[in-house]
Amino acid sequence: MSYTPLLQQLIEALRCLPGVGPKSAQRMTFHLLERDPEGALRLAKALTEAVERVGRCDSCRTLSEAPLCPLCASQRRDRRLLCVVETPADVLAVEQSGAYAGLYFVLGGHLSPLDGIGPEEIGVDALLARAREGVEEVILATNPTVEGEATAHYIGELLREQGVGVSRIAHGVPLGGELEYVDGSTLTRALAGRKPI
Amino acid sequence: MSYTPLLQQLIEALRCLPGVGPKSAQRMTFHLLERDPEGALRLAKALTEAVERVGRCDSCRTLSEAPLCPLCASQRRDRRLLCVVETPADVLAVEQSGAYAGLYFVLGGHLSPLDGIGPEEIGVDALLARAREGVEEVILATNPTVEGEATAHYIGELLREQGVGVSRIAHGVPLGGELEYVDGSTLTRALAGRKPI
Ligand SMILES: [Zn+2]
Ligand SMILES: [Zn+2]
Fold first, then answer.
1. CA A63 to ligand 1 center in whole angstroms
2. Torsion A27-A33-A39-A40 (CA) sign
3. What is this model's ipTM?
4. Of A154, A176, B144, B154, which has the fewest beta carbons less than 10 angstroms from its beta carbon?
């Protein structure tokens, strides 16, 4: 093939993006170098700054460059409600439904003993401590998958022992799907239909 | 919404990639920051190096960080054949067909008077000079679109006046398509079926 080393390097580097195969990577490379070199440099800078400066919110563990994310820092959220989700993308999905005004806790995944992911890896102790800070209801919004259900069940038991109200979002969310891809109105129904567990 | 400024900046910067909408950009951002920060830094470096160092081959005008691209620098190409294409991606498409062993000339587009793109913008003088360097046949492989056909016709006339043999790739390539997306076997047929014009 006739790629020069720097073109080859860029095509390969673009493959780190989810959903980008060899053909798309080649197309992106030519597009950037021929039509949008400024966009390419802006992207390089945005990538570097984000990797170097974005960490985790001290309170909810979502992605944030400030010690507290905008949601946790806001005075307008209901601090009696805590919604537990698997990923930062799930926080956004729930926010986009517009149906929730409480705070969040991001597990960063779900229990998966075979992969060595236990309660410690998903921050269960931090969640229990967080729930003691005036939280009246914890809404478990892990994915409606087998692993998400098992994780919700495990966390729910511990919270109940601690005397905290616990609910699970209703199964308006389609079973086997991923929360991140559920539309806002389905999430609204799921939140409204939540039941104590 | 609850993106922090650096997340927002990265999501917007990713939109410079062709085919990447807001939802994909968000997905890419979370993926990179949560799962592949090294990939993100590698991509940032590859983008910067490519933009800063990749220019045009002095001879064929394709993308290259060296003064001569690997094809023009090769001793194994047939210098009597010159294939004229619109873009660097088209060079790769023809190379991938495996049916051609000559050299190339990249116009960087096609004639488009309404957009102010005339013979000078697509390097017609450079092409005519290049064709005088021992070239026996110029194969016009501009896109099989109205503009590509018009460009091929215009260039073909000038080359014939100069006494150079000229051919057009056969219409095995589907009309209205873009050369970059044609499969190798179709391109092979199109090259074999080329006719003098
Ligand atoms: Zn937070
Ligand atoms: Zn060249």
1. 8
2. positive
3. 0.82
4. A176
